[in-house]
Amino acid sequence: MPVDPRAILQQTFGFSDFRGVQARVIDRVLAGQRTLAVMPTGAGKSLCYQLPAVALPGTCIVISPLIALMHDQLRAATAIGIRAAALTSADDNRAETIARFRAGELDLLYAAPERASGESFRALLQQAPVALFAIDEAHCVSEWGHDFRPDYRLLRPLLDAFPAVPRLALTATADAHTRADILVQLGLPDDGLIVAGFDRPNIRYAISPRQGTTQQIAGLLRDHPGPGIVYAQTRSGTEKLAAALAATGRPVRPYHAGLDPAVRARNQADFVASEDMVMVATVAFGMGIDKPDVRFVAHAGLPKSIEAYYQETGRAGRDGDPAVAHLFWGAEDFARARQRIAEVEPDRQGSERARLDALGALVETAGCRRRILLRHFGEEPGERCGNCDNCLNPPAAIDATQVARKFLSAVFRTGQMFGTGYLHDLLVGKSNERSLMNGHEGLSVFGIVGDDEAPLVRPVARALLLRDALRANPHGGLEFGPEARAILKGEATVSLIVPPKRERSRRRGGAA
Ligand code: ADP
Ligand code: ZN
After folding, report:
1. Distance 161 CA to ligand 1 centre (A)
2. Least distant ligand from the CA of 311
3. What is the residue with the minimal CA distance to atom 26 of ligand 1?
4. Cα(389) to centroid of ligand 2, in Å?
5. What's the CA-to-centroid distance between 198 and ligand 2, angstroms?
6. CB-based burial label for 42 (10 Å; 0-12, 13-18, 19+)
7. Which atom of ligand 1 is nearest to the CA of 18?
8. 372-425, pLDDT tens digit by residue?
9. Which of 414, 420, 490, 506 makes the best surface tag, with the fewest CB within 10 Å?
């Protein structure tokens, strides 16, 4: 009996049509081919293996890295009548699941890679027909990916033990390098790569330096009355920001892994049901949450990578209506990330640094943000998208090389141990007790920056930190980084992006 995917789509899933690349991916799977599907979050990856699981005889084995994720999907699949189970340490019905698999009564069987790669799991799979191997979050197999899981590497012998069973690897987050690596690691052909469009045209991207984060995000809340997510970097940061934002009168909840599970579950359920709630969360929040009407996602600090940024901002506007993603960053985010990189194993530092540089290019650009994002995912979009901060309000770039050289010179002459505030006062010639005591008021750099240049001093310090011409020591003192030399010698210039005034951006935004 030939299977009709469209009939299953309508009868089992209740959808009238396939979306994007789903039909192409499913055709390949049903034809027994090996495939890597790179599809952004929300594009409907699960359907790509769930539908074949229903259509094909035998069980589809789904490898997934997180028990929570598995159970979310399990619930959703069971709810529409798909026969599914998971084999994890958290499931106490394992004996029953094994019996159901043996009897051919399961469409889907979820397992984590550490279990799936074991001897006993392989022996089990030999006892009943396997329809398909679906490897979810497949970027975990690559050291180039941002989320390497050594256990994923152990899956290959299992897959190779069933050479006739089709393989479907799925991921939302893979740059060109990672993709190529996934193909090799999982034994997939080059022509098995299917990439869905990454553009989310209804999301407006905006990126600004931090200047009083709470106030900036409170402004965002005022402009966007719908539900929103604010990502903070630490658990305590989450709690503090949530408390501060509650003063705006909006319902605000915190969410992080340190909260009592019952509180966490309640906050999440309330958020999903709400039409105006703001969730202040660590990146632990968002995976597997189905809330299409999130109107804004704010980052109170730098995300881990462009992939992480894309995934986190991608939780906004899944209903297709306009939504906003606003990132607030500080130079210290980059300094901290560099320190972390210095602590990882030497052979991983190169890829980590490349990841950070890609983020640097995104926040520093005076050009289109969306273009940088999409190019990162291998697409070649136009010069301007018309729906990011830089396209809507092109910033002016000014040459700040002179101020940068004065700043570096002040860093050097004071012994590379003072912070931005101290150096600023010194450069503009503002006398204080500390500089008097240190004898710094006699230096040639004292008061060398005039009134017209004074507002540039702090942005210049930020730019120098970002491009590694300056590094912050653990006490906040600034010292030279490898890029300082070229600037001092006149071989490199420093230009600053001058963001347009907020008022102006509002008026233009309103007219657009
Ligand atoms: P991903 O895993 O790629 O992030 P999901 O598989 O969770 O995405 O699907 C995202 C949402 O899209 C889900 O609510 C799902 O039910 C819905 N969806 C998937 N495919 C279709 C389709 N063909 N038509 C309508 N809705 C779909
Ligand atoms: Zn743009």
Report:
1. 31
2. 1
3. 15
4. 7
5. 14
6. middle
7. 23
8. 998 888 777 888 999 999 999 998 888 999 999 999 999 999 999 999 999 999
9. 490
Q: Whose CA is nearest to atom 12 of ligand 1?
A: 44
Which among 280, 325, 279, 333 has a CA at the least distance from the CA of 304? 333
SS3 465: helix
* Contacts with 421 (C-beta within 8 Å, 6 or more apart), sequence order: none
Atom of ligand 1 nearest to the CA of 172: 3
Whether the predicted pLDDT of 232 surpasses 80? yes
Residue 440 has what pLDDT?
A: 96
Up-side HSE of residue 338: CA atoms within 13 Å toward CB? 19
Nearest CA to ligand 1 atom 19: 44
The closest-lying atom of ligand 1 relative to the alpha carbon of residue 17 is 23
Which residue type is seen at 208?
S
Measured from the alpha carbon of residue 199, the closest ligand is: 2
Which ligand has the shortest distance to the CA of 287?
Answer: 1
Residue of 340, 343, 360 lying closest to 466 (CA atoms): 360
Amino acid at 452: D
C-alpha to C-alpha distance for 24 and 20, rounded to whole angstroms: 9
Centre a 10 Å sphere on the Cβ of residue 76 and count the other Cβ atoms it contains.
15
Neighbours of 90 (CB within 10 A): 11
Q: Which of 332-346, 436-450, 492-506 has the lowest mean pLDDT?
A: 492-506
**Tokens matching residue 266:** 């309640």
Cα–ligand 2 centroid distance for 229 (angstroms):
22
Residue range 424-461, pLDDT digits in tens = 999 999 999 999 999 999 999 999 999 999 999 998 99
pTM summary value: 0.66
**Token pair 């809340």: residue:** 221
d(CA 265, CA 401): 52
282, 287, 292, 312 from 279: Cα distances, Å:
10, 14, 15, 13
Write the DSSP assignment of 257-274 as a string of letters: TTS-HHHHHHHHHHHHH-
Pocket of ligand 1 (CB under 6 A): 15, 18-19, 22, 39, 41-47, 290
